[in-house]
Amino acid sequence: KKERTLALIKPDVVTKIGDVLELIHSSNLLVTKAKMTALTGKQAADFYVEHQSKPFFNNLVQFVSSGPVVALELMGDEAVSIWRRLLGPTDSSAARKEAPRSVRAQFGTDAVKNVGHGSDSLAAAARELEFFFPSTVGHGPPNTA
Ligand code: CMP
């Protein structure tokens, strides 16, 4: 089934985005939107609100707002699960043992500097895509510049 998902490339690997794109391309996913941006602490906290009670929340928010990130909309068959499988286990060290060809195994450092995020469900994908690529319909006049 054709799906859309959000891939967030975190500050640790923004300079290696080409390598990540190569793996995305090899997995038959299309990049249908892309944006480089920087999140404020508040924006990062909003994005990760489901984790706000976790012990690592402050670390996570601090790291994700520490530099530029690249948000990608990926599209393809089973895009949600394919991208998460491509990322590999959350902790990059575990990824090196359990999924040595995964993105986190190859480019990640630990559980915080772990290359990227992927939506974990279609509902999460819808929310997270809207976060980075808000639909502009009904939100004011079109940009006529
Ligand atoms: P992500 O896919 O972005 O979604 C939640 C994030 O929380 C996860 O990747 C990790 O970066 C982070 N995370 C999960 N578990 C831990 C942990 N034990 N220590 C630090 N960060 C964690």
TrEMBL record:
Protein location: Cell projection, Lamellipodium; Cell projection, Ruffle; Cytoplasm, Cytoskeleton, Flagellum axoneme; Cytoplasm, Cytoskeleton, Microtubule organizing center, Centrosome
Entry annotation: catalytic residues: 117
Record-listed ATP binding positions: 10, 56, 84, 90, 104, 114
TM segment ranges: none
Function: Major role in the synthesis of nucleoside triphosphates other than ATP. Possesses an intrinsic kinase activity. Displays 3'-5' exonuclease activity with a preference for single-stranded DNA. Does not seem to have nucleoside diphosphate kinase activity. Functional component of the gamma-tubulin ring complex, implicated in the regulation of the microtubule-nucleating activity of the gamma-tubulin ring complex in centrosomes, in a kinase activity-dependent manner. Part of the dynein-decorated doublet microtubules (DMTs) in cilia axoneme, which is required for motile cilia beating.
Family statement drawn from the similarity comment of this UniProt entry: Belongs to the NDK family.
Subunit structure: Component of sperm flagellar doublet microtubules. Component of the gamma-tubulin ring complex.
Protein name in UniProt: Nucleoside diphosphate kinase homolog 7
Organism of this sequence: Gasterosteus aculeatus aculeatus
High-level lineage: Eukaryota, Metazoa, Chordata, Craniata, Vertebrata
